[in-house]
Amino acid sequence: MVNTGPFFLGALLKPFDRTMKKNILLILFVVQALALHSQNNKNAAPTKYAVVLYTGQAVKRSGNGKLIAAHWQINGQSSFEWQKDISEEGDYEIMLSYATYARGFSATISTQNGEHINASLPNTTGYYPAMKDWANFNCERVQLPGKLHLHKGGNRLLLELATTETENSIILNKMELVPVAKKAAIQKDQDAAIKSRPNTDWFANALYGVMFHWTSQSMPEHGQAKPYNKAVDDFDVDAFVNMVVKTGAHYVILTTNHAEPYFPAPLKEWEKNFPGHTSRRDLVQEISDGLGKHNIRLFLYLATHVYARSDSVDDQEFTRLNYTLLREIGERYKKSVAGYWLDGWYQCYEKHPQFDFEAFYKICKAGNPGRMVGLNSWLYPVTTLWQDYWAGELYTIGNASADRICKDGPGSGLQAHNLIVLQTENWLHTMKDTEIPSPHVTAQDLAAFISRSKGKCPVTINMQIYQDGGTGEEALSLMEQVKKLTQP
After folding, report:
1. Label partner for 300 (CA 20 to 30 A): which of 5, 119, 377, 436?
2. pTM attached to this predicted model
3. Which domains does the chain possess?
4. Which residues contact 98 (CB under 8 A, 6 or more apart)?
């Protein structure tokens, strides 16, 4: 590396006159700028124009690894080969979505024509300071230097990962091919997405909220579960709202459908598509009205991969279900629903890569242009910028966000938001004749984490809930302590 420190430069430039010194400094500045430009671009933005190659779709693989969810967890060296049809001939830039805490990884991407790109892979950064568990990783979308020329029709692409240490591990989610010819269109789409977002000041300053997975599978503390409609009819809204007030939460994320496509309200379109899966009582509106008396806002969780049947329908039907069902919900509740937390989007996008996120974003605003939208891609880089905040499914306490807009990790470019679980990784209470588990965090640790995130990144705490709408005594007591510590 060339030494460009101040003492070295001073000695180097001493023999030259003032004009020559300015010229040399200008040259050095340009050289440094070019060197920085050639480095990997961490936190590259997603684009609908990319051709996506998922690790699970590779036709050949080598190395010591295993497929988990939508990524390969690899130890040491490995390779992935894809056969991919390209619709337009041209130059393509390469983006890798990966996570590693280890130094010394490099990548080589080559085509059947002998072209190749070599790049070192920097450590990824984000929420988790270390990989203490299989689900503690910071996956980022990184643009590699250089480009490859691909032909229209079939192309063979080979990705080879090498490391200086055989024990080094890396998580690989996907490789994306970005057409250079679409650069202007990509930038235009990204600018439009950012410009369309509502003001998120209230959310950034909300301190924390609570999430409840109250679903068709929720169990009471004792005895048999009630049929869904009976459970909706018997849900004590006043007691639920009073419990939420005690937690000190500024918003609630309420699960409406989860593993099964039920919805706790008399929605006509939902009932038409899922007969017998709606309720007579509008529990959503009653909860929103009750929370609203205390200035607590309501978000709805919906499992997109379930209600839109992503695994079993074609693109047209997937789009129809998303548009029809979300439009009805938005127009019915208007400002009573402040936001959506939409699950399953890394799965949905892999199944339906031509989905129009811009049009869907506008559908999600039906009845309330200020409604906030988050599309959950778990720990993988976000699928689109056409959303307002990072869903942030994180489980445990990690690094507090240093910025209001995520600058690293999978949510880069979005309003920061962290979602953790208070009890266990089971989001809902489904065990018969059992109490809700004790919290796995202390009030002091949770309050300190919330305080470090204050004004930048709201923290959502998922609390397990019984079928009658109550929660565990230990959990409620802990949240009351958090309220005292953070809102004296």
Report:
1. 436
2. 0.91
3. 51-182 (2.60.120.260), 197-486 (3.20.20.80)
4. 121, 124, 139, 140, 142, 170, 171, 172, 173
Measured distance CA(460)–CA(250) in Å, rounded: 10
Q: Which residue has the tokens 């699928």?
A: 383
- Phi, psi (rounded to 5 degrees) for 151: -95, 155
Spatial distance between the Cα atoms of 201 and 161, rounded to a whole number of angstroms:
42
And the tokens for 243? 């419990």
Give the other-Cβ count within 10 Å of 149's Cβ.
Answer: 13
What are the pLDDT digits (tens) for 246-293?
A: 999 999 999 999 999 999 999 999 999 999 999 999 999 999 999 999
**Letter string b/e over residues 258-297, b meaning 16 or more CB atoms within 10 A of that residue's CB:** beebbbbbebebbeebbeebbbebbbbbbbbebbeeeebb
Could you tell me how many residues make up the chain?
488
Q: What is the CA radius of gyration of the chain?
A: 25
Cα–Cα distance between 128 and 142 in angstroms, integer?
18
Whether the Cβ atoms of residue 401 and residue 453 lie closer than 8 Å to each other: yes
b/e code 197-227 from CB counts within 10 Å (16+ = b): bbebeebbebbbbbbbbbbbbbbbeeeeebe
Q: Please tell me the distance from the alpha carbon of residue 302 to that of residue 343, in angstroms, as a whole number.
A: 6
The residue with tokens 């936190």 is: 43
6-13 and 18-37 helices, crossing angle to 10°? 140
Cβ 100 vs Cβ 121: under 8 Å: yes
Summarize the confidence of residues 385-409 as an average pLDDT. 96
Lowest mean pLDDT among 127-136, 317-326, 334-343, 353-362: 127-136
Residue 21 has pLDDT above 80, yes or no: no
